[in-house]
Structure formats: structure tokens, C-alpha cells
Write a structure and sequence with these properties.
Layout: E1 19-22, H1 31-40, E2 46-52, H2 58-62, E3 72-73, E4 76-82, H3 87-100, E5 104-109, H4 114-117, H5 129-139, E6 146-154, H6 161-169, E7 176-182, H7 193-202, E8 207-210, H8 216-225, E9 231-234, H9 236-240, H10 244-248, H11 256-277, H12 283-295, H13 302-310, H14 315-328
Parallel strand pairs: 1-2, 1-9, 2-4, 4-5, 5-6, 6-7, 7-8, 8-9
Antiparallel strand pairs: 3-4
Helix pairs in contact: 1-11, 3-5, 5-6, 11-12, 12-13
Bound molecules: flavin mononucleotide.
Length: about 325
């Protein structure tokens, strides 16, 4: 649908049984993004959707658009995510997704934003293991498909994860994906390798690592520290450099010049897909600007690249600014 798919040759390094997951980003890793991304790049093994919420009736899910209509995108399995603290709502969501043919849903216990966390949702649930336990008891044995959890190390403190892990260990959870920060950090500060390292020993469930993998060197560093972890979820690193999963899997990459050409085609295809999706409304530019906040990091002078796009107001201005970026700046992803 979106043109030729580059196929890279598998060489060595990352173990064949290690998997890379696309992290969910509300407003960024949309259905459209996943569709276009997977038509250009290789290396991702599973795609997690940004969270769904307010599943008051199964019918309300029919109105949530394309996000829940494809169990695979580019041949890769999609995992719908739910943000909720209501077992019935989670069961309704799981049932709907199972009927649609999805093989897994994911529970969001990581969202850090106070308006969500203050209501004990997202990472706001992490200081309350007994409440999570109650919800999980109501889910055990009732889901027809896998149920994974994505969480942080805590909301206020990284001590919170330990009682929570003991709770998770007791329940039917197919995998635990941990972003190694606490909620209060939002996305700042550094990940806590020490605490995550302790989880590797204490967690009896399949465990995936998430947080600050921006390069092969970062990945090597984390995988040396957490030898027993097989699965890796990547967000900003992939948004900045869409080749990152292929790099981590040591696929053969196009030359830097060819990479730049491919990135140009990718952002153009994404932009046109959003124009179509929004019926040619200028909102398409706002969505692309948000994505450029990440992609600009891989060009020489990221700030100049981002500023030149940020001020565009019309389709013509946006297209000209993008053309100028590819004319004037180098693609410097590692
Ligand atoms: C704008 C934005 C939106 C996000 N939306 C979600 C979401 O819907 N669900 C979720 O579990 N995590 C969400 N995250 C967190 C990311 O999935 C990921 O856990 C985080 O960025 C750390 O991984 P990274 O260092 O590889 O980016 C979001 C993060 C950002 C910055």
C-alpha cells in the first residue's frame, strides 16, 4: 500500500528469541502511524496501542475508530491497551478484543499524569497493591486472551514496586513490562537500573524492560545488566530513529544517504495519510509537528529543524519546511 518495503538481511548479535515492542504513545503511535511505520521499517515484533479508556459499553468501542479494527498491521500483532481501575470494564474490553481476534490486551499502570494518577489510575495505582490485587482476582481465569501489564517502578517511590510485584506474581499475567522510572518523574531524570535489576530476580513472570533505549550502545548496556530479560519495549528511541529496531537486530542497513531518502519518503507518506484521515484539515500538520519533536533529534541541529517546522501554518509552508530540512541538514542517527 505504501510502496516498497526494504528487507534487511539478518546477521547476528541480538538473540533470535529476544523481541522488540513498539511502546504506546497517545497521539503519536496511532493506527495511521503504525500502518505507515510497519510498511517502511523492520525489526518490531509487537505493536502496543495507546490506551483506550471509558469503555462503558462494548458498543462504545465500535466508535473508537480504526484502532481496534486490525489485529495485525504490516503482519505484526497489535496489542490494545486499556487504562482503567474497574475490573468489569477491563473484562468488557478483553471480551471485545477477543471477539475481534486480538491475542492479548495490556493494562496501563504507568500513565504518570496527575489528573489520571490522582484517581488511582495508571501509575497512581502503584502505591495501592491491595486494590490491584482485588481487580486482578476478579480477572483471573476470566479472560480468553493474554493479559499483560505495563507499569512503572512506583508513583511516589521506587519502593512501591516490590509489594506490587508480589501481587503480580500471584495472578494470571502473561508478561510484565516495566518502564524503569516512577510516575512523579514523568519522562525526566534517569531510569533506575538498580531497582529494575532487583525485579529481574523477584519477578516470576516474563519480564520486559522499557526506558531510554536510544541507541545500540544503550541497548548493549541494558542487556548486559539484565541478562535474563528477553523482551524490550522502545518508544522515543524508535520515534527519533525509525531504523533503531533493525539496528538492534543487526539487520543490514541502507547507507546514510539512502536512510535519509527513506526517512523523507516515510514522513511524506505519514503526512499524506494524516491528511487523508483528517479530511485535509490542518490538524494533520499539528500531528506531524508532534512527531517531528522526536524525529528532529536525528538531524544535525535538532532545535533548528524543529523550530523551522513548528512555525508552519499551512500545508504549503509545512511541505516547503520539510523539503528544506532534507536539503539543509544531515541525517545523523546512530
Ligand atoms: C506523549 C507520550 C504519550 C504516551 N502514551 C502512552 C500510552 O498511551 N500508554 C503507555 O503505556 N505509555 C505511554 N507513554 C509512555 C511510553 O510508552 C514509554 O513507556 C516511555 O516513553 C518510556 O520509554 P522510552 O524511553 O523508550 O520512550 C507515553 C509517553 C509519551 C511521552
Amino acid at each position: 500500500m505504501f510502496g516498497l518495503i526494504p528487507k534487511y538481511v539478518f546477521l547476528h548479535f541480538m538473540r533470535i528469541d529476544q523481541k522488540i515492542y513498539l511502546a504506546p504513545f497517545q497521539g503519536v503511535t496511532t493506527y495511521t502511524f503504525r500502518e505507515v511505520y510497519t510498511s517502511f521499517f523492520t525489526g518490531i515484533d509487537k505493536l502496543y496501542t495507546p490506551f483506550f479508556t471509558a469503555v462503558h459499553k462494548a458498543k462504545s468501542l465500535d466508535k473508537k475508530g480504526a484502532g481496534l479494527n486490525s489485529v495485525k498491521q504490516g503482519g505484526i500483532g497489535v496489542v490494545p491497551q486499556i487504562l482503567s481501575k474497574d475490573a468489569d470494564e477491563i473484562l468488557r474490553f478483553a471480551d471485545y478484543c477477543a471477539k475481534k481476534g486480538f491475542r492479548e490486551i495490556n493494562w496501563n499502570l504507568g500513565c504518570p499524569y496527575p489528573r489520571i494518577a490522582n484517581k488511582k489510575r495508571g501509575s497512581g495505582m502503584l502505591p495501592f497493591p491491595e486494590e490491584a490485587h482485588k481487580i486482578l482476582l476478579e480477572l483471573d481465569g476470566k479472560l480468553e486472551i493474554d493479559f499483560s501489564v505495563k507499569c512503572r517502578l512506583g508513583y511516589y517511590s521506587d519502593e512501591e514496586i516490590f509489594p506490587m510485584i508480589d501481587v503480580f506474581n500471584e495472578h494470571d499475567i502473561s508478561e510484565l513490562i516495566v518502564h524503569a522510572r516512577i510516575g512523579k518523574q514523568l519522562y525526566g531524570g534517569s531510569v533506575n537500573k538498580e531497582v529494575f535489576g532487583k525485579l529481574v530476580d523477584r519477578c516470576m513472570l516474563p519480564l520486559a524492560y522499557n526506558g531510554d533505549i536510544f541507541s545500540k550502545a544503550d541497548f548493549d548496556n541494558f542487556s548486559e545488566s539484565f541478562g535474563l530479560v528477553d523482551n524490550w519495549m522502545i518508544g522515543r528511541g524508535l520515534l527519533r530513529n525509525p531504523f533503531l529496531p533493525a539496528i538492534l537486530k543487526s539487520y543490514e542497513l541502507p547507507s546514510p544517504e539512502e536512510q535519509k531518502t527513506l526517512i523523507y519518503k516515510f514522513v511524506t507518506t505519514l503526512y499524506l495519510a494524516y491528511r487523508k484521515k483528517t479530511s485535509d484539515r490542518l490538524h494533520a500538520i499539528s500531528i506531524m509537528k508532534e512527531y517531528w519533536g522526536y524525529l528532529s533529534c536525528s538531524f544535525s541541529s535538532p532545535q533548528k529543524v524543529f523550530n523551522s517546522l513548528k512555525k508552519t501554518r499551512t500545508f504549503d509552508e509545512y511541505e516547503e519546511a520539510v523539503a528544506a530540512v532534507f536539503r539543509n541538514y544531515d541525517w545523523q542517527a546512530n
